[in-house]
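Chapter summary example.
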Amino acid sequence: MESADAWEAEEPERIMISALEHYSYCPRQCALIHLEHLFDENIYTLRGRLAHERVDTLASRQEESIRVERAFPLWSQRLGLIGRADVVEFHGQTPYPVEYKLGKRREWRYEALQVCAQGMCLEEMFGLSVTHGAIYYCASRTRREISFDAMLRSAVEEATVAVQAMLRGTALPSAPNDQRCEKCSLLESCLPGAVAQSHRVHLYEVGLFQVADSLPKLDDRDP
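The structure predicted for these 223 residues follows.
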């Protein structure tokens, strides 16, 4: 019989489900939040928090034939994921995760990744097949249904392994320094322009030392 220590050694490192979305969007952002524990507010994160106010408190209600659970705790022992769903609708016995997002409907894959991870957690928790979920966009009040197909499930597992490996290390991923950075609340902490163009900083440093070396030393000056 295996000991408890051996079982714990085989258990994957637990990560937040939200880390998968962060990693899929920008690995450096994910590392700053989940490895360096940095989080800065800007207008977009404040709006996002307001959009989630309705679903951040545990609550349960019945809407005709559908039971609605808010702030529903999630986990997967197999994947090593923990977190919570904004909303889980129970259509009969079948859970259906719904993630709330700020703004209008879009087709961003990293959002689908997060909802699929929630569905995979629900499958393990309830022992039922969970094939679909949805993203609710607050600004347009529309839903985008997500099918948890084999390709998306594989992407969830790959992202989970990548995040676990990243969090075991100490190095930050490189900065993308592209349009993703414009609205990122971590812009000032990340400094993508300086990091992505570090070769320029090195050239400036080399030039500075060359100028310093060319100046006359005090001992070389005439009395």
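To summarize the output: The radius of gyration is 24 Å.
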